[in-house]
Amino acid sequence: DEVKAILQNVELVSTTADSWTSHRRSFLGCTVHWIDPNTLERKAATLACRELMEKQTGRLLARNLTDIFAEFSLLDKITHCTTDNGRNYVAAFEHFAADSTTRL
Question: Which of 56, 60, 66, 98 has its CA 20 to 30 A from that of 38?
Fold first, then answer.
């Protein structure tokens, strides 16, 4: 809740996302990065580290990222999202591109 409160006062953010598998379990991690409007210092916070119960498809990643970004009211604030160039992430962001209401 502290991160949500801080991010309410931030106009623009960037994010990072990564997914991985360990011992047959898949995970998605997501962080947010912004400039503190009062101090102009770079800030970052972890938004989520979730276990993925399904195969890491582009559709699954897009759905999970949308849920995470919506939970923190970031859908209209994200300028960039850094990921690797795996096919699943390329497909995930094609879903965002197809949705003209999402700024990503």
Answer: 66
Write out the E strands in the chain. Answer: 13-22, 25-35, 42-52, 78-82
Lookup: tokens for 63 = 């759905």
Q: Tell me the C-alpha to C-alpha distance, in Å, between residue 27 and each of 17, 23, 42, 61.
A: 11, 11, 26, 10
Cβ burial 86-101 (10 Å sphere, 16+ → b, else e): eebbeebbebbeeeee
pLDDT tens for residues 37-67? 999 999 999 999 999 998 889 999 999 999 9
Closest CA to 47 of 26, 22, 78: 78
- Per domain, the residue ranges of the chain are 2-98
Q: Which pTM does this prediction carry?
A: 0.87
Helix-strand-coil percent breakdown of the chain, rounded to 5? 30, 35, 35
Amino acid identity at 24:
R
